[in-house]
Amino acid sequence: MKAQAITFADFEPGRELGAHVEAYAPALATSWQSIFGRTAAGGMAEGASLAVVLAMRAYLTVVSPRPPGNIQARQRFQMHSVPRTGEAIRSEVRCIDKQIKRERLYVDLQVQGTGEDGRVLYTAVMSLIWAQ
Fold first, then answer.
1. Domains in the chain: how many in total?
2. Which domain holds residue 18?
3. Closest alpha carbon to 13 in 91, 114, 96, 128
4. Within a domain: 4
5. What span, in angstroms and rounded, lies between the C-alpha atoms of 126 and 91?
6. Per residue in 48-94, pLDDT tens?
7. Is residue 52 within a helix (H) or strand (E), and if so which, with residue range?
8. Residue 106, Cα to own-chain centre: how many angstroms?
9. Could you tell me the CATH number of the domain that includes residue 84?
């Protein structure tokens, strides 16, 4: 049986939707290096780029299934600390706001990643136009 898509009515500001844990695995770093080169390996650019990847993967995993037709209108991303290779990153997804503007359904979600020692790595806020 196919699960029902998450609707606008399902979002409740302040409520955590779930969490996703994924390791900043060497294979992920290798994929990044195949695009940007090994000279930048292990640096701040790699860590920041892969933090964005981990945040998006958390959103796609936790907020699922999504109805077709959603639009990501805006994203803000703040780095607090760089993840370490091999470290398990816990990314919590939370609804922080929802509203109707000009007959469109807007949802603001926060994804916050923490490292194994509890330090905050990143905070992302995604503003989405929700399809239903």
1. 1
2. 12-130
3. 96
4. no
5. 14
6. 888 888 999 999 999 999 999 999 999 999 999 988 888 999 999 99
7. helix 44-62
8. 17
9. 3.10.129.10
